[in-house]
Amino acid sequence: MSGGVDSAVAAARIAEAGHDVTGVHLALSANPQSYRTGARGCCTIEDSRDARRAADVIGIPFYIWDMAERFHRDVVEDFVSEYAAGRTPNPCLRCNEKIKFEAVLDRAVALGFDAVATGHHARLADGVLRRSADPDKDQSYVLGVLTRDQLSRAIFPLGDSTKAQVRREAAERGLTVADKPDSHDVCFIADGDTRGFLAGRLGADEGPIVDALTGDVVGTHQGAYGFTVGQRKGLHIDRPAQDGRPRYVLSIEPVSNTVTVGPRSALEVRSISAVRPVWNGPIGEPREPLDCTVQLRAHGEVYGCRAQVSGDTLHIELDGAATGVAAGQAAVLYAGDAVIGSATISGAV
Where in the cell is it found (predicted)? Predict the structure, then answer.
């Protein structure tokens, strides 16, 4: 129970259905004041109090589990090291994988519980992960890294509801979080300044910004880790491009500490490679090339594609060009609304 409306209604629904439910809030920071405060967070003291009040209204036991050390190691440190390596991680995806459905699930099973239920907007049908009934709130992408075993012990009570329905139900149940705003951004970056957060841990490291078309150095930066592929704002380029059009980040080279920029058209890719595939869908690992769809970012566009496995690498050929494809993000494959599997993007051309 994060302290938000979704997990509160999820808990209420499964308790009302007759399950023996215990509410658990995760303490993810040794110093909660260093994380977000107020409605923008999901790791704050206020959130733990909101979660406790919701559990009291529902009438279920409530506990706080300290996961701060594990969260720092598996999510925060992973976030920093991925940016340092020139990749763009998704910390929410990593939290689902390593904390909610690994650390929490392992502890829950050891204590005799059968499953972990969350307020994610996704559906499970016969063990298959599917998109939510609310396409605007669908979170199947950030759950796409879960294994079949983890999904077999997961419950997503909100998958058939829209967010508006969830809020109405919360109000009808007397849950005070009914109108609480959704959390956004990265919960462990207190002010939302990702570049400043990384600079505080990786230090300043001046390097060049290079125009891909001319090879000219068009600016400097204080750390290549502060950029992501597809970024347009905050580049601090010293002079405009010859064609007068905006420039975007095309690539990040951590070894030479070089950020390369160029026109939007240069961002287009049609071929993607991804590593560490997880096959959690109804067909398992495909033995032959597979026609399906792929999502490359949370709430991002969906592309038709042809996917094929070669050893430990997943090769994805897109039907149309995609832009802003960043190494470190997940590529989640779908057959209709069902998740087939996922892998971590390692390259794109």
Answer: Cytoplasm
- Condensed to tens digits (0 to 9), the pLDDT of residues 84-106 reads 999 999 999 999 999 999 999 99
Residue 335's domain comprises: 268-348
Q: Is residue 191 part of a domain?
A: no
Q: How many CB atoms are closer than 10 A to CB 235?
A: 18
Q: Is residue 192 part of a domain?
A: no
Residue 38 one-letter amino acid = G
DSSP-derived secondary structure letter, 256: T
The answer to whether residues 270 and 317 touch, using CB atoms and an 8 Å cutoff, is yes
- Work out the angle between the directed axes of helices 5-16 and 45-58 (0-180°, nearest 10): 20
Helix (H, G, I), strand (E, B) or coil at 42: coil
Query: Do 93 and 72 fall into the same domain?
Result: yes
Helix (H), strand (E) at residue 33: none
Regarding whether 219 and 162 lie in a shared domain, the answer is: no
The partner residues of 330 in beta bridges, in order of sequence, read 344
Q: How is residue 234 written in tokens?
A: 């905050």
Here the tokens at position 51 are 């979660």
Q: Which residues are annotated as a binding site?
A: 26, 119
Q: What is the CATH number of the domain that holds 252?
A: 2.30.30.280
Kindly state the tokens that stand for 54.
């919701």
- Asked whether residue 164 is domain-assigned, the answer is yes
Please state the φ and ψ torsions of residue 137, each to the nearest 5 degrees: -115, 5
49: which DSSP letter?
H
> Maximum distance among all alpha carbons in the chain?
67
Does this model's pTM top 0.90? My answer is: yes
Report the CATH number at residue 159.
3.40.50.620
- List 42, 92, 187, 292, catalytic entry: 187
Active site residue 43: no
